[in-house]
Predict the structure.
Amino acid sequence: MNRQERSPDDTQVAREEVKPVHNWKPISLRLPFLQFMLLATISTIIILQSLLYKSQTQGGILFAPSIDELSLSVTFGYRYAPTVIAVIYGFLWSWIDHDTKRMEPYFQLCSPGGASAEEILLLQYPLDFIAFVPFRAARRKHWSVFSAASASIIVSWTLVPLQAAIFATENQTHAQVLVLLPGFTYAVEALLVLIALCNMSVIHFSVTRKCNFQSDPSAIISHMSATSEDAELLALFDDLINRPSEDLHTALMGSVFSMNNDGKLELQSAPTLNHSSGQKAKQTLQSDKGHPPELQWYSGVLFLAIQLACIAVLGFLFHQARAGSGLPLPSISRFMRQILQNCIPVTLSACLESVWVLLTRHLCELQTSTELRRGKVTSMKSVNPAYMSLPPQLAIFEALRAGHFMLSLLAFVATLASVLTVISSRLFFEHTVRLDIETMLRPLLSLPFRDLNETAPNSKSSKQSGSTQDEFHIALYNAMDLSGLPSWTDPDRFYFPITFTENTQSNVDYTVTTDYFGASLGCHEFSNHTMRDFEDEIGNPARQLEFNIAQLDGSIAVCSIPSPTEAPKNVSGSSSLELAAVAEGSDFCRQNVVAGWWRGYALDQEVEVTNKTLMLCNPMLVTGSAQVNISSTGRVQRPKVLSSVNGSLPEYFTTHPSDLILQAHHYIIDKSGIWHNDNSSSDWLNRLMAETFVDNRFLDPNLPPPTFSQAVTIFCAMYNKLLAIFLAHNKDLLFTPSGPTNPLLPVVQHSFETRIFLSTSAFIIAQIILGIYAFTTIFLYIRRPWWNTPHPPTSIASTIALLAASHAVKEPLNTSNEDP
């Protein structure tokens, strides 16, 4: 080499005096930064485990009557904040990964004795697709790159998607509960443990490996500085500039390079160059424009097709969800649904982000060489920008400052890719909606009523007395909220039931127009009565209250009810008596009900009546049609009466409508009643009224009896409820089963199902970003960079080969060759 002669000792002393030794490292590979990442990883594991413990022991971590009642901050906290944090965490790891890859050749150069060209100058880790790097690094035993790349892949492609599925809302006893799903939580914690191990590995190599860098070696100007004083080295690479990529590798195989304390590249052993490939280089130059595979047109077409497919699929799903009340659940498994709704969209977004990052890195690497190819440019636009020393998302500022607008656009899109990843985590959500399906179903029963005298319960005729008390028990349990009313029954009516399909789910109900039966009770207060004492059939003294009722033909019917005369021995003082009884006498009498409330003073079993309220009620059957919403179990909701008819209704009976009233009275009217001096009722009907309406004025002996206006509404409501229960409880005996000849009825089936929807705001943002993707892809591949060398400057060797023949590199040599 033709350079100014100095002894080795003098040269070493001069270097130590003029240029002090530094140990420069990127921020992301410095110990405080790596320790912060390790602390963040371990803290996240602890936080997740604490939240999981709370979720499992307390049934959730957030509670609200409805998911819509959660505040905006809380909603953002569980929907988006975890993904935002994971994306930021992933960005920091990609920064570490990027710096580890680009610095690996320089650390190899600084190792004792240097390293072979294939270990250093030919490496292009930053431009390799992220999935391939760990395998290539493991093959070369570059464990720092292996650890950082593995951690980056785990975060981007598994951790971020899985954490998006950790939180889920569940409905427990009508309350929305936010829980942590254990399967996803444990998976994320396991991944964080692997990341922590990778983190410690990177820390180890960052601390133990030393390289005396004085500044960032990634810029072209740094490469110029590292080679400008070595004519033999420049001559070697100057000869390689016109060789194709495969010859560049072949020519340098076996050579060894190192870097001294001044940051200068030194050739330790040179290979024997094969000059016979010059013609091949010229042919390659004419046929190959030097685009890497990622920038070839077929890669652009494939990438654009994927983006357009995403736009089309999202648009189709959004339209289907809007038009069809959501999308059906793909699985009953919550785990599988979280995979499909959260993990897969985030994973796809992360893959697209990885491609954009890779394209941005390619443009970062090629931008300065492209500027040099164009001719005279300022150093700010050519040799000074150190794009490869920045994460692609941060290159936007340097690119704008240098006027590299295509690069700044790609850096902006790489940043948008992170936004799309966050949006994708909550693009799909579940919501319970009502689905309406029109169908035709057959009535369960048909008219007319059966012959009651022969088919009534226990084969009792209409003139028999007694009560099974089933109806009273049903009504009492319902009043005490211990059970519901019988199916197809509400407190006023019994509705003709419809036969539902056997596979009806519990969350399905129906809207149907059907017939109903009930009662209209006409009551009036009366006092025109007499008391008659007599002896019963066995000679015991008895008393009955007699009164007259005008019949429809104008004749008078004499009717009566039994009236208790004596009080029990344990009753004294202020006392009360309640009674509801069917009038006795003719068949017409037995269609009427008398209800009375007495107050008196008991002494030695004799009672002096001080006050009373009596009313006489005549029930009439009522029928008509009603539109009812009813559950699959027959629970009536929101009935709407469409028509109402009351009267004799002979078309519904084979005998006479009064037979139904007479039969019902044996089961819903309790004739017992005794004097008492407490708040306990003396009959079933008044106990039901007290339980249903929480009103003791009917029972309290220390209060006056209820007035007619107070009693009539409550008594009529109770009578109607018992008659509806009677019809429902005995429907199989009172009605005829339907057959094939019975017409089908139109029914609207309402199934309350959990369906999948797309968030409108997230969908719009995602479509806008994907549209920007498509535009940028087309723009990039139309204006993709090209250069005049047969190999792209994507490694240290190819970059030095590009610069070796330049005057900017050789001028320092010419200066150093001049005599002092």
